[in-house]
Amino acid sequence: MEVLRNLLEGYPNLWGGGVAHSVLILSLVIAFGIILGKVKLWGVSLGATWILFVGILFGHLNMNLDPHLLHFMKEFGLILFVYSIGLQVGPGFSQLSKKAV
């Protein structure tokens, strides 16, 4: 029980500078957001928007993350986004360039 309390409070010298704390908080935000996204109220579901709302709530509760891990997650998310756009556009782009020539 002490380990869980330490993880939620996020001691800076716990397991490599609080990386475990940051990963736990990110996992909880995503999990709670997905669970709430499946709930329908009056036939309407907000879906993935709940992840944003849960993240805002955790930020309001002062659940801070390790700045290095947060920077890594931002950059990695951008890389995944650009890669997925390239996968979708790639085959059509090569056909478009053949028609232009």
UniProtKB/TrEMBL annotation:
InterPro entries the record matches: AAE_transporter, YidE_YbjL
Compartmental location: Cell membrane
All copies of domain YidE/YbjL duplication, residue ranges: 26-95
Transmembrane segments: 14-34, 41-61, 76-96
Topological category with respect to the lipid bilayer: Multi-pass membrane protein
Gene Ontology cellular-component annotations: plasma membrane
Top-level taxon of origin: Bacteria
Keywords, ordered alphabetically: Cell membrane, Membrane, Transmembrane, Transmembrane helix, Transport
Family, similarity comment: Belongs to the AAE transporter (TC 2.A.81) family.
Protein name, UniProt field: Predicted cobalt transporter
Source organism of the structure: Bacteroides pyogenes JCM 6292
